């Protein structure tokens, strides 16, 4: 099985907090877990083999942000009966498009 998640963790209403440094701390916390991840401009995509590992990684990322208020958004796609890597999800869409699913405009 594969668990894929979209994670966004950030300080909220926290003047004086270095936003970029706190995001970096959240991303760095993922290194302690058996997950694959890629950070994008507005979220980090995480892939794990099981829900427990994913949730532990998400909790660590949330706790790594040192701010008076922290906002976390999590969206989970849990394949319970098969493995489907994040690259395969994109490949399926690109196969239908007949091109890459990106634009450099």
Automatic annotation (TrEMBL):
Residue intervals passing through the bilayer: none
Domain of life: Archaea
Residues in Thiamine-binding protein domain copies: 6-94
One term under GO cellular component: cytosol
UniProt family annotation: Belongs to the UPF0045 family.
Protein name (Swiss-Prot/TrEMBL): Uncharacterized protein (TIGR00106 family)
Organism from which the protein derives: Halobacterium salinarum
């Amino acid at each position: 099985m594969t668990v894929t998640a979209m994670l966004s963790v950030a300080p909220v209403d926290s003047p004086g907090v270095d936003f970029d440094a706190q995001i970096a701390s959240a991303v760095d916390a993922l290194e302690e877990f058996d997950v694959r991840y890629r950070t994008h401009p507005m979220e980090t995509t995480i892939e794990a083999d099981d829900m427990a590992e994913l949730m532990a990684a998400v909790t660590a990322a949330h706790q790594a942000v040192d701010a008076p208020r922290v906002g976390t958004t999590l969206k989970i796609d849990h394949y319970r009966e098969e493995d489907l890597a994040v690259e395969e999800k994109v490949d399926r869409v690109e196969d239908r498009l007949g091109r890459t699913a990106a634009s450099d405009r």
